[in-house]
UniProtKB/TrEMBL annotation:
CDD domains: GT8_LARGE_C. Pathway: Protein modification; protein glycosylation. One of its GO terms (biological process) is protein O-linked glycosylation via mannose. The gene is Large1. The chain crosses the membrane at residues 12-31. Keywords: Glycoprotein, Glycosyltransferase, Golgi apparatus, Membrane, Multifunctional enzyme, Signal-anchor, Transferase, Transmembrane, Transmembrane helix. This is LARG1 glucuronyltransferase. Residues 44-58 have a biased composition (Polar residues).
């Protein structure tokens, strides 16, 4: 604060000096002609205008005056320079958390001033901008549809959150897919002072479906035209952004530009930075009408209240109908219609400085917009080629984009000092649960993990699947981390049915996975695999949370609860669907067991039949799963009986039993208290038994575990005594919870544990 006050005093002193030094100088020079308050008398010779003495004296006075004037001008130049430096530094003083206002770039509003601003280097003006209040909410509208656009929105939001110092209210016009993805993402992201509202894009289709559109954005690319009807009538202004935008500054600076709108200006837009609307890109190129180069609608400032009063809906519809009679369709979606309206009504637009929308399209002239990195405010990847677009400085822009793409979103969960967040029930409940934990408990970190909210991005890649109409469909469910990616292609080759996978990754690893998947012909040919990213947080691998996420997002009536290290036998998908009918799973509580085997060989000739598998068992190429280290886990499957079985047979639950099963989708979730290694599947099977599920072994089904390096969690379990103590404590607490929940029937679990 002291530094700000000193800076203001310097600023004031410099201003006063510039004003008063010339005045003082003239008073001094004029006073030189007086003595004791009276005019100094001149000699008769000096008083004669044409006398030699008078001429010489006048010459000397003029020369003296010129010298003094040059000195004063030089002093003024230096003072102006100091004043300019003080102005350019002043925004940094106002950017602290204790400041109530921001200094914003001076907008232009007309193309001549804009060009002058570009030449001047987009410098900032101090003290001429209306203030953006510290806790004023900034409203942002985004149209988003589909799986890929949902990923783009996340990167855009990250760039906004990184720079912001104001509460934000996002208005998302989304289809059903994007809403499911983004609602879950923001709910689990839990960013303070951020509010999200959704508007059904599918309900708006009828408003714009009559407009033929050639643009790759499709019908959703026209929906910005109807925001005055879509957004709440109480909302007066909003910043509208495309999903392919990256912010390089605080969005509050753009919000402040609204205060510069004058008269009937209701649209804030940047001039289009290509020659598209000039119609000279190729022979017979015929664009929609536009004012000069036209305007780009990737970034729009909308004064909604004034637009409604002007009857914007009627205005754009009449214009679109008239132009479509000759143009037949739009080429650039809503942008063509916006420009046609502006062509007729140029008074509607306030022209934003070009750095608020640096357009990296195929024929861009954006390089004329900036001279330095500091000039950039918003980068717009408005080419279908996106990051592959050609531009002199594309490497810099790409690196900036990748920075936010791979940035840890958990770091953006920061509070805005001095701006209280709206009360959130989920957040309050979480804080209450955490406060009840004893931080001195040696198992505190284990207990805390149960309540950790992990940011979750559902359907990270395109997903398209309709379950079979006969209600027998089965989804394979599994979870994995980055070190198991190599198993994905093999599983897809063995299992042709739908798959639901939860991947535990960092933001950077999620992008590595995306590149891996997009480079795989096998994975890209499969649209029935749902990839759900659960972002890393904390020191434990939340194995049961991952399983629950994958289980929750299946579309079939049944699921096969597997692990990523297992390859199912060829044809298992169809075999399980037949077993569902044969064993009447729809009317009975059964858990169908798929017997598990393992190999110690990285290269395996996978058995194509049960007979071939039995032969490999006899030769020692295969083994029953974990027979040498954890026999109890799968012993109740009764592999001796399975060798000769031709029909399904029932087995009883035993302590530490953890088979891989097929169950209905309404089965209980996994218990989240178990993280990392140990008891995560055992507890689930115990609960299935407590709920009176019948365990039935399938005679002609099998799966084989492939070898891999030991996981980090099993290494901790083996080397850390406290880890094992805490796991034992959690087991005992789980059994006590089972007894309280299921009563007398659950006592057998305590007895079995004591006897084992």
């Amino acid at each position: 604060m002291l530094g700000i006050c000193r800076g203001r005093r310097k600023f004031l002193a410099a201003s006063l000096t510039i004003l008063f030094v010339p005045a003082i100088m003239w008073i001094y020079l004029f006073a030189g002609s007086f003595e004791d308050g009276k005019p100094v008398s001149l000699s008769p010779l000096e008083s004669q205008p044409h006398s030699p003495q008078y001429m010489a004296s006048s010459q000397r006075e003029r020369e003296s005056l010129e010298v003094r004037m040059r000195e004063v001008e030089e002093e003024n130049r230096v003072l102006r320079k100091q004043l300019s430096l003080a102005q350019s530094r002043s925004p940094s003083h106002h950017r602290g958390n204790h400041s109530k206002t921001y200094s914003m770039e001076e907008g232009t509003g007309d193309s001549e001033s804009l060009r002058a601003g570009i030449v001047a280097g987009n410098s900032s003006e101090c003290g001429q901008q209306p203030a953006v209040e510290k806790c004023e909410t900034i409203h942002v509208a985004i149209v988003c549809a589909g799986y890929n656009a949902s990923r783009d929105v996340v990167t855009l939001v990250k760039s906004v959150l990184f720079h912001r110092r104001n509460p934000l209210h996002f208005h998302l016009i989304a289809d059903a897919i994007a809403k499911q993805i983004l609602a879950t993402l923001f709910q689990t992201w839990m960013v303070p002072a951020v509010r999200i509202d959704f508007y059904d894009a599918d309900e708006l289709k009828s408003e714009v479906s009559w407009i033929p559109n050639k643009h790759y954005s499709g019908i959703y690319g026209l929906m910005k035209l109807v925001l005055t009807k879509t957004l709440p009538s109480s909302l007066e202004r909003v910043i509208v952004l495309d999903t392919d935008i990256t912010f390089a500054t605080d969005i509050a600076e753009l919000w402040a530009v609204f205060h510069k709108f004058k008269g009937q200006q209701v649209l804030g837009l940047v001039e289009n930075q290509s020659d598209w609307y000039l119609g000279n890109l190729w022979k017979n190129h015929r664009p929609w009408p536009a004012l000069g180069r036209g305007y780009n609608t990737g970034v729009i400032l909308l004064l909604l209240d004034k637009l409604r009063k002007m009857k914007w809906e009627q205005m754009w519809r009449l214009t679109a109908e008239r132009e479509l009679m000759s143009m037949l369709s739009t080429s650039l979606a809503d942008q063509d219609i916006f420009n046609a309206v502006i062509k007729q009504n140029p008074f509607l637009v306030y022209q934003l400085p070009c750095f608020w929308n640096v357009q990296l399209s195929d024929h861009t002239r954006s390089e004329q917009c900036y001279r330095d990195v500091s000039d950039l405010k918003v980068i717009h990847w408005n080419s279908p080629k996106k990051l592959r677009v050609k531009n002199k400085h594309v490497e810099f822009f790409r690196n900036l984009y990748l920075t936010f793409l791979e940035y840890d979103g958990n770091l953006l969960r920061r509070e805005l000092f001095g701006c209280p967040s709206e009360a959130d029930v989920n957040s309050e409940n979480l804080q209450k649960q955490l406060s009840e934990l004893d931080e001195d408990d040696l198992c505190y970190e284990f207990r805390r993990e149960r309540f950790t909210v992990h940011r979750t991005h559902l359907y990270f890649l395109h997903y398209e699947y309709e379950p079979a109409s006969d209600n027998t469909d089965v989804t394979l469910v599994a979870q994995l981390s980055m070190d198991r990616l190599q198993m994905l292609e093999a599983i897809c080759k063995h299992w042709e049915g739908p798959i639901s996978l939860a991947l535990y990754l960092s933001d950077a690893e999620a992008q590595q996975f995306l590149r891996y998947a997009q480079g795989s012909e096998v994975l890209m040919s499969r649209h029935n695999v749902g990839y759900h990213i659960v972002y890393k947080e904390g020191q434990f691998y939340p194995v049961n949370l991952l399983r629950n996420v994958a289980m929750k997002h299946i579309s079939t009536p049944y699921m096969f609860l597997s692990d990523i290290d297992f390859l199912p036998m060829y044809g298992l998908y169809e075999y399980l669907r037949k077993s569902v009918i044969q064993l009447d799973l729809v009317n009975t509580k059964k858990a169908l067991i798929v017997p598990a085997f393992e190999t110690l060989r990285y290269r395996l000739s996978f058995p194509k039949s049960k007979a071939e598998l039995l032969s490999m068992l006899d030769m020692g190429t295969l083994f029953t799963f974990r027979y040498h280290v954890w026999t109890k886990g799968h012993a109740p499957t009764n592999f001796a009986k399975w060798r000769t079985a031709t029909t399904p047979y029932r087995v009883e639950w035993e302590a530490d039993f953890e088979p891989y099963v097929v169950v209905r989708k309404d089965c209980p979730e996994y218990d989240r208290r178990f993280v990392g290694f140990g008891w995560n599947k055992v507890a689930h099977i115990m609960e299935l038994d407590a709920q009176e599920y019948e365990f039935t072994v399938l005679p002609n089904a099998y799966m084989i575990h492939m070898p891999h390096a030991p996981s980090f969690d099993i290494t901790k379990f083996r080397s850390n005594k406290q880890y094992r103590i805490c796991l034992k404590t959690l087991k005992e607490e789980f059994q006590q919870d089972m007894s309280r929940h299921y009563g007398f029937a659950a006592l057998k679990y305590l007895t079995a544990e004591n006897n084992s």
